[in-house]
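Hi all, posting the design record for the shared folder.

TITLE: backbone redesign
STEP: 1 of 1
STRUCTURE INPUT:
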């Protein structure tokens, strides 16, 4: 059974933290779906990921292409990702259920701690997943490095 890791972003924007987490997921061999709520925002993230350095290259694709099933990282708005991921990373308030978490190695929920609406939505997700029996961890970078602050 997987676990949901909540990442409270306060020092780095979502694209920087996402790239770091995608690198770690790739390092353990996981296929990843980056789930967003807005296709335009995913297009923006796609451009940011392609603009990364050669040493930090993250092979990926935006859902809707001919090779979606082959992508190690697939950016999508859909709950069913064609690349059969072991990890789902939710950005911009994208929803995930406890049932989905149970079938994955890991779920990462990234939210902007400087955005009151995003913070409120993450709190609601935490509560709902906790009540549904999902394992969850809350990570914060308030002191400059990532620290686990809570776990269910």
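Okay, here is what came back for every position:
SEQUENCE:
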């Amino acid at each position: 059974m997987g676990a949901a890791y909540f990442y409270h972003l306060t020092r780095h924007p979502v694209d920087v933290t996402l790239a770091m987490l995608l690198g770690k997921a790739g390092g353990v061999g996981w296929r990843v779906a980056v789930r967003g709520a807005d296709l335009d925002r995913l297009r923006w993230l796609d451009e940011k990921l392609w603009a990364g350095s050669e040493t930090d290259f993250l092979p990926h694709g935006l859902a809707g292409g001919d090779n979606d099933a082959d992508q190690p990282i697939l950016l999508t708005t859909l709950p069913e990702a064609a690349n059969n991921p072991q990890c789902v990373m939710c950005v911009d308030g994208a929803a995930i259920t406890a049932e989905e978490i149970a079938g994955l190695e890991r779920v990462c929920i990234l939210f902007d701690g400087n955005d009151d609406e995003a913070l409120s939505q993450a709190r609601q997700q935490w509560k709902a997943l906790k009540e549904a029996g999902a394992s969850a961890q809350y990570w914060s970078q308030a002191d400059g490095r990532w620290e686990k602050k809570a776990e269910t």
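COMMENT: The domain at 3-151 is CATH 3.40.50.10110 (Rossmann fold).
Let me know if anyone wants the other runs.
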